[in-house]
Amino acid sequence: MAARQCAGLWGTITLLAAWIVMPQPSHAQKSPPPPTQTEAYPTESVGYGSDSSGTEEADMAPQMSELEERVGWMEEDMEHVLGVQDSMSSKLEKDRLNWSGDLRITANNFHLTDKTRVKGVDTIDRIIMTPDGTTTPVYSDARRDDSEWYPHNWTNRMRLEASYDVGENLRFYTRLVLFKHFNDFRPEPTTLDMHQSRYPKDSGLRIERAYFDWFITDWLVFTAGRAAAPEGPPAELKENTERSATWGVQMVEAEIETAMLTFHMSRVLEGTYLRVFYIPFTPHVNSSLSDDLTLFTDGGYPPMNAFGYLLELSLPGLGDNLWQFGGVIVPKFGARNLPIYVNKEIGSLYPDEITGNNLGLYANLNTLMEVTDILGIGLDLFAAYALTYLKPT
Question: Is the model more confident about 294 or about 313?
């Protein structure tokens, strides 16, 4: 009797443990039929004093087999859950990196009509040499009469853009540009570094922008690197793209390395920002290994620093509108130490002279107004003004 009660109790405890610890698997096709009352509660008679161990093992065999099968299903479910977790972690990591690109192919026909009046020094073979050895230039006054067609001017521009969330408060941006004429075999003229991606050249990739944003607080952002300046407003109207959050083309249209602070002033007026920036210019003489030594000699170019600001706001009630007020100042505008061979008769420098290290002060004040989709009819309006002030030495 005791053996019968013990066996029945063991079967009950075993089944209860399986129900609590081992939940039903999600594999509906593998779910076994529920155990029968006979399997759950053995009723085989066991006499007093008989050997019941073999009988108990026989009674427990179905329950153990079922538990092993359920454990196998649980292991499969856990592997599935862990696999989904790994996949989600990988997806979240990939979501931090965003890639995009565009390709633009243009075909243009140009017609040049030139009726310009030209006044200047005539050709060298008509320069008159005086008896005392000096020269008296002969000036010409003529009018051009040119009318030319350039019927096929195809360009190819490809851009690759990427951004990556390095951390919660740090983001990196970059964009590479390839811009060239179709099958152009001519050597391209040298352009300034700040315009490398703006004009068609060879098939090399140029770094148009490469900078990071450090979100110090919800109202202060520090930016450093090659900033996103080439396509400021209202250039997006020409390109039919989204407006760039940068200074307008009335201020600068070039790739500029800068360090900048952006103040979000939405608490004062929604959509208002103040940018304060610093642009250091460190021109080198050449690209040789000893070039950095020439920075400390008289033969190099002097360093130059520019400081500026940009206030950007949007007035409520005017739809999609933008107003910019900016300024930049260069306290000491450096000059390139190169001889200027221009005849002294027109007041220029002598051939043996060179410019000084400081040409004077340069300042610029500018403003931009842009309103798009006026009255919902697709009409855009923009106007810009710039004032330059020079104080030469």
Answer: 313
In tens, the pLDDT along 42-98 reads: 444 444 344 555 566 666 777 777 787 778 778 777 777 777 666 666 655 667 889
DSSP SS3 for 160: strand
The answer to whether the CB of 158 falls within 8 A of the CB of 178 is yes
Q: Which runs of E-coded beta strand occur in the chain?
A: 97-114, 117-121, 128-129, 135-136, 139-143, 146-167, 170-181, 206-215, 220-226, 257-264, 273-281, 304-313, 320-330, 360-374, 379-392
Q: What does the angle CA 158 – CA 162 – CA 166 come to, to the nearest 5 degrees?
A: 165
| Residue-averaged pLDDT of the chain | 75
Residue that has been written with the tokens 């855009």 in this structure: 380
Confidence (pLDDT) at 27: 42
Give the pair of three-digit tokens for residue 251.
């201020």
Confidence band for 367, pLDDT divided at 50, 70 and 90: very high
Please give the Cα distance from 334 to 339 (Å, whole number): 15
N-to-C CA span, the chain: 118
Close Cβ partners of 298 (under 8 Å, ≥ 6 residues apart): 337
What is the DSSP secondary-structure string of 326-376? Answer: EEEEESS-----------GGGT---TT----S--EEEEEEEEEEEEEEETT
Q: How confident is the model at residue 39 (pLDDT cuts 50, 70, 90)?
A: very low
Cα–Cα distance list, 47 to 42, 213, 222 (Å):
14, 84, 88
Q: CA 94 → CA 84, 103, 164, distances in Å?
A: 15, 24, 9
DSSP state of 288: S
Residue 16 is predicted with a pLDDT of 37
225: left (phi over 0), alpha (psi -120 to 50) or beta: left
Query: pTM score > 0.85 for this model?
Result: no
